[in-house]
Amino acid sequence: MLGYLSIRNLALIDNITIEFGDGLNILTGETGAGKSIIIDAVGLILGERADKDMIQTGKDFAQIEGVFYLKKPEKVIPFLEQYDIPVQEDGSLLLTRHLSRSGRSICRINGQTVALSVLKELGQKLVDIHGQHQHQSLLNPDYHIEILDRLGGELIAGCKHKVSSLYTRWRTILNDIDMISRSERDSERMKDLLSYQINEIENARLKPGEDDELIQERALLQNSEKINQVINEAYDILYSGSDNGMAVFDQVAIVKERLTQIFSLNDTFAEISHVIDNIYYQIEDVIDKVRSCRDSFDYNPGRLDEIESRLLLINSLKRKYGDTIEEILELQERLKNELLSIETRQDRLEELTRQEKEIYSQLVEACTELSHKRRATAKMFEQRVVEQLNQLGMEKTLFQVSISTPDDKTDYASFITSLGFDKIEFIISPNPGEPLKPLAKIISGGEMSRVMLAFKTVLAGIDDIPVLIFDEIDVGISGRIASVVGEKMSSLSQSHQVICVTHLPQIAVMADTHYKIEKQIEESRTRTTVNLLDEKGRQKEIANLIGGSEISEIGLEHAQELIDMAKGMKEAIN
């Protein structure tokens, strides 16, 4: 509820504070006394646009503060946390609007400065103002589908949840299909490229370290003549001997034999003999290896050509696929995996396409079911609103819930959202002969307020906007209809805090809290004051509303009679 409203330097208001109560709060006063200023002030703390001309003449600023007490703070706390706005432990909410002559407007929520758009977004969760040129949630067609669905209760909730769930799955599948399809356009070219690369590497039959071995073999073949000469010379020197002398092996054998004759004479001779024996056997091993190299070495010019060709192929692959054979073979495995992914992607696309058709069919069926339930709820809603309008003196008013559904099934996909495929808007014709139009096209403020009262009465159980303000609701009504309006407001105030500006005693007598707005002239300046009325003050104000400024005893008695009757009606409502 709106607990306190403080206004400074706004139009005719110097500095006033209004403490609103639970239930029905009535504001009365003469035309021009300043009632509209108070409603405008509420609008300002709800984020309405401001004009610096609203600042009182001679003052540099105007400031409005409103304190709300939240019975269900959990509905607002997520919003506050979204903007890092501090949450009060007692559930109170302080909204502040500061206007300056410079045109600047400072908005605060619980002391934290916020953008005007943030203040307005929060205000829409707290208050509905019903009067001409005021913001009203029911005038927003985007809100109508939510109203109808909430009115349908569990009948619609389960089906709506099913639609939302299916829609999420459907959109996810469509996104996956789109992503695969976009990559699929290049997939054939990519498949050809990958297949070519894989085959090129596979056909080469590379082996790790092969290039090093080939380079080494090539070096041997390129130096074959020198190698052959050196090996033969080494063999001759070591074993065969030559014209120049005895072979090394034979000479060592002689030394070995001679030393056997003296090695037993002392340790030195024995040590030398032992070393010569080792040399002898080592030379023998070397001769065997040199002989093997000489006998096995075969210079083949054709093999050198093969090696050069093989190394040329390997280096060509290195330039394309990696610096080493190991890197090329690793790339080959990655290319195979990528090719496999592309080949299975088509299978995945076919499976997703099958799933999309299945989910889409289920979604259309669920949307159709939801649409049928909405139409059933709409009929009930139309009847109840028309009944309320009849009771409010708008017997000729036509009201419909317009539900537009795509006719052609091929168009369903472009219409479907998480809420189904219905477009819903409330349309009305207040006067005979006029076509049905959107609610926002209603011109009369009085008609607007009564229509909104009818809606709020029907929606009282599901409407979660806690504070309702009605301005100009009594335009064009009197007598019995005024009494009906008063009763409905009192009934509505059982579930909402209601603030109403009125000139009619039949409405004013239903007040739980009654304020009188007066205009006073002090020192040649006109100022607005606000007074909370006690029982006697209420009796006098009701009499004033009945008979004008001249209040008679009969008028006071009549006023008291209306107050007593109102108490009885309120007790019956409770």
Could you outline the blueprint of secondary structure elements for this entry?
Layout: E1 2-10, E2 13-19, E3 24-28, H1 35-45, E4 61-69, H2 77-82, E5 92-100, E6 105-109, E7 112-114, H3 116-126, E8 127-130, H4 141-151, H5 154-184, H6 187-204, H7 210-222, H8 224-240, H9 248-259, H10 267-296, H11 301-321, H12 325-391, E9 398-404, H13 412-415, E10 423-429, E11 437-438, H14 445-458, E12 467-470, H15 479-492, E13 497-501, H16 505-508, E14 513-522, E15 525-532, H17 535-547, H18 553-573
Parallel strand pairs: 3-13, 3-14, 8-12, 12-13
Antiparallel strand pairs: 1-2, 1-4, 4-5, 5-6, 6-7, 9-10, 10-11, 14-15
Helix pairs in contact: 5-12, 6-12, 7-11, 8-10, 9-10, 11-12, 12-14, 14-15, 17-18
Structure, described:
By secondary structure, the protein is α/β, with parallel strands linked by helices. The chain has 18 helices and 15 strands. The protein has a six-stranded antiparallel beta sheet. Helix 12 crosses helix 14. The chain is elongated and about 165 Å long.
